[in-house]
Amino acid sequence: GETIGILGGGQLGRMIAMAAAQLGYRAHVYAPEAESIAAEVCGGFTCAAWDDTEALARFAADCAVITYEFENVPVAPLAPLTDKLLAHPRALETAQDRVNEKTFVEALGGRPAPWAAVNSRADLDAAIARIGTPGILKTRRDGYDGKGQWRIMSPADAEGLDLPAAALVYEGFIDFRAEFSVLMCRGADGDIRFWDTPENVHKGGILSVSTIPGSNLVQDQVAEGRALAAKVAEALDYVGVLTLEFFATENGPVFNEMAPRVHNSGHWTIEGAITSQFENHVRAICGLPLGDTRLAAKGVVMNNLIGDEVHDWAQILSDPANHLHLYGKAAARPGRKMGHVTRLILK
Ligand code: ATP
Ligand code: MG
Ligand code: MG
Question: What residues flank ion ligand 2 with Cβ within 5 A?
């Protein structure tokens, strides 16, 4: 088979590579870190910096098609790879900057939390005067798992904060009732499929649990979330899995952020849906027909295994409804995603 290139070497890349292997493709990971849990399951590995244009060119020459598992890849060095990068660089440019992302989604009729770009202390004061507290100050770029965020409960909190030397955005705090994510895949032919919508619980800014089906409140807001996701995918001429995160509020869904890639809140689809997000992502970028996204059980609960919590693997595995996924990371650090357990509800 042909080779699928994957930019980024973490667990999402690992699970894309495993789905690629199932369909007879070879995978080649490109990542700046010498240790890659994705490269471990791949035939090829290039360890080089994101802006190493020669290494990128050699990588591209080995790959029939290129995807990524991480939306913060610098876009400029990817320009020569664009014809192989089916999930368009424009999706990366939009999603890797929170201000671009919110502006783009607002233009499509989406509703984010009230927000303001912040480049100085005066901007922050003006943002707080207009939007109020509580709020969250976030770096525009490079944040994930709640990193690069500061909660501001009162104007005094803001005064006490040393402003980080990065472009920022201030968002009003949404008093949400629940969180959910719309998981969809768009094929190379424009075919759009949605998976069932997980209700997500975060702890300390990190996804902890996804439950399918979600509460009635969430289910009532899915149609509006899906309509926005389809508009985003079409506007970007996007191919592959796309995820939009929402806050479910009394007044309908509020857009949080998007991920133009496979997503942690879709890991349940490996056993819980007829076709997983990883398989459909590979099918999409390889120009193949998409698989059925319907539920394969009555319900599913996915729990992330985070940090150095100690688990009894034998006990988890002794329940026939559980499926254990370990990512093979050498060291457990606080807040690090080590694996997940998917529990199918069969009756
Ligand atoms: P990810 O790993 O999902 O990319 P991230 O670092 O980009 O995470 P966000 O999704 O912006 O972080 O925020 C993480 C979590 O913090 C959210 O899922 C939500 O629980 C909470 N949060 C973020 N922004 C807001 C907000 N404006 N109002 C209320 N809660 C928020
Ligand atoms: Mg994010
Ligand atoms: Mg998020």
Answer: 257
Q: What is the pLDDT of residues 145-183, one digit of tens each?
A: 889 999 999 999 999 899 999 999 999 999 999 999 999
Nearest CA among 207, 212, 213 for reference residue 305: 207
Is the full-model pTM beyond 0.90? Answer: yes
Query: For residue 300, which amino acid is it?
Result: V
Q: What is the mean pLDDT of the chain?
A: 96
Neighbours of ion ligand 3 (CB under 5 A): 245
Q: Per the annotation, where are the binding residues for ATP?
A: 98, 138, 143-149, 171-174, 179, 202, 256-257
pLDDT in tens, 12-25: 999 999 999 999 99
- Domains of the chain in start order, with CATH, are 3-85 (3.40.50.20), 114-172 (3.30.1490.20), 178-345 (3.30.470.20)
Q: Residue 178 forms beta bridges with which residues?
A: 248
Closest of 259, 287, 283, 285 to residue 91, by C-alpha: 259
Choice from 150, 256, 257 to test ligand 1 binding pocket (greatest atom count within 8 A of CB): 256
User: Ligand 1: residues whose CB is within 6 Å?
Assistant: 113, 136, 143-147, 171, 173-174, 179, 202, 205, 245, 256-257
Note the pLDDT tens digit of each residue in 38-66: 999 999 999 999 999 999 999 999 999 99
